TrEMBL record:
Keywords, alphabetical: Cytoplasm, Endonuclease, Hydrolase, Metal-binding, Nuclease, Ribosome biogenesis, rRNA processing, Zinc
Cofactor detail note: Binds 1 zinc ion.
Tree of life domain: Bacteria
Cofactors required: Zn(2+)
Major subcellular site: cytoplasm
NCBIfam families membership: rRNA maturation RNase YbeY
Protein name: Endoribonuclease YbeY
Organism: Nitrosomonas halophila
GO biological process, one term: rRNA processing
A Pfam family it matches: YbeY
Entry coiled-coil feature ranges: none
PROSITE patterns according to UniProt: UPF0054 (PS01306)
Localization in the cell: Cytoplasm
Phylogenetic lineage: Bacteria, Pseudomonadati, Pseudomonadota, Betaproteobacteria, Nitrosomonadales
Annotated family: Belongs to the endoribonuclease YbeY family.
Length: 158
């Protein structure tokens, strides 16, 4: 069952966050910097956390999705939860997929990175979208956080 707490306000620095951002791509143009990732993670946190965000290229994204989910293609975001620690894990963003989706969906690239980062942070805290009821809860939280950050509702159709 997902936590019932609300994400902290961006100005709430009572929670401890250990965040590492790894850029495993050659071209970082248009990609958010570490400060933006930290802002987005803080906005979605409801508890202290240890998180690694890794931005990968297509071959690494494909290998991870194949090895851990049995899928033959890359996906936009993968979340790896460290089961023995509270709110600790890796969020992997596949840069070419994120970029392609943003273009296809007519979304701002930085806003799409923000949404997928928040999505991953919510997964680390126990939220999921496997069944419809859980999906509604998670998506409404994502929308609340993203719009509070000043971006458009990620689920609205342009």
């Amino acid at each position: 069952m997902p936590p019932t707490k609300k994400p902290c306000e961006p100005a709430n620095y009572k929670l401890k966050l250990r965040l590492a951002v790894q850029y495993a791509v050659k071209d970082r143009s248009g990609m958010p910097d570490r400060l933006l990732f930290r802002r987005w993670v803080n906005a979605a946190l409801m508890e202290s956390a240890e998180i690694v965000i890794r931005i990968v290229d297509l071959p690494e994204g494909e290998a991870l999705n194949r090895d851990f989910r049995g899928k033959q293609s890359a996906t936009n975001v993968l979340t790896f939860i460290y089961g023995d620690l509270p709110c600790a894990g890796d969020i992997v963003l596949c840069a070419p997929i994120v970029s392609r989706e943003a273009q296809q969906q007519h979304k701002n690239l930085v806003a799409h990175y923000a949404h997928l980062t928040v999505h991953g942070v919510l997964h680390l805290q126990g939220y999921d979208h496997i069944d419809e009821e859980d999906a509604v809860i998670m998506e409404s939280l994502e929308t609340e956080i993203i719009t509070r950050l000043g971006y458009a509702d990620p689920y609205s159709v342009p």
